[in-house]
Design brief:
Peroxidase, domain 1, 9 helices
């Protein structure tokens, strides 16, 4: 059975995915849907430029479920990150993460790291900064990470439902989210003896 917050997360991310009509085939979208979606995403992105006013911009652009409650700043952060990532895909939907559902940001960044030809050390340092961040400092580090993903020439999927849930659990005792992200980022591929012959 899903909790109230998990239902709110699903509803919220579904709204983001459907905001500009790109969840529909191109021929079924209206020009108004596309224009209105672009306007709303631009409004949300203004929250990245003005972090103190991010909540205002997000709430003007999209409905945040009541169940968000004390987690409202985290929902706002996810909307901003999604809009920044979406900017790369003006008329198309973000790369599908449905086959990567329940994938942590650590695994998404590992995928990026494996595809990089240079800059792995920089990504490692950024990722380490995220892992060491307190909840209130995460927005700055995560914006940098998402912008790096969005700037990469190939598609790197990010599961925003999972990311939102992980951020809500960020301060849990024992840091299970950070530990799982680290494991998934730095895990080695299993040794395959037949591949070396």
């Amino acid at each position: 059975m899903r909790s109230e917050i998990e239902n709110a997360i699903g509803t919220f991310v579904r709204q983001l995915e459907q905001l500009d009509g790109t969840h529909k085939p191109r021929l079924q979208r209206t020009k108004w849907e596309e224009a209105e979606g672009r306007r709303r995403f631009a409004e949300i992105r203004r929250g990245a430029a003005e972090p103190d006013a991010a909540e205002l911009y997000v709430l003007r652009a999209i409905r945040v479920p009541e169940a968000a409650g004390r987690h409202l700043p985290t929902f706002v952060l996810i909307a901003v990150l999604y809009a920044l990532h979406k900017q790369k895909y003006a008329k198309d939907r973000l790369p599908s993460f449905h086959e990567h559902r329940y994938t942590s940001l650590g695994r998404s960044l590992r995928q990026l790291r494996q595809k990089l030809r240079a800059g792995e050390e920089s990504l490692d340092m950024r990722f380490q900064a995220v892992l060491n961040s307190r909840q209130e400092d995460l927005q700055y580090h995560l914006r940098s990470i998402i912008m790096r993903i969005a700037s990469f020439k190939e598609d790197i999927p990010v599961d925003y439902k999972r990311l939102l849930l992980d951020l809500i659990r960020w301060s849990y005792m024992g840091h299970p989210v950070q530990r799982q992200w680290a494991r998934e980022y730095w895990q080695r591929e299993p040794f395959n003896a037949s591949a070396t012959r």
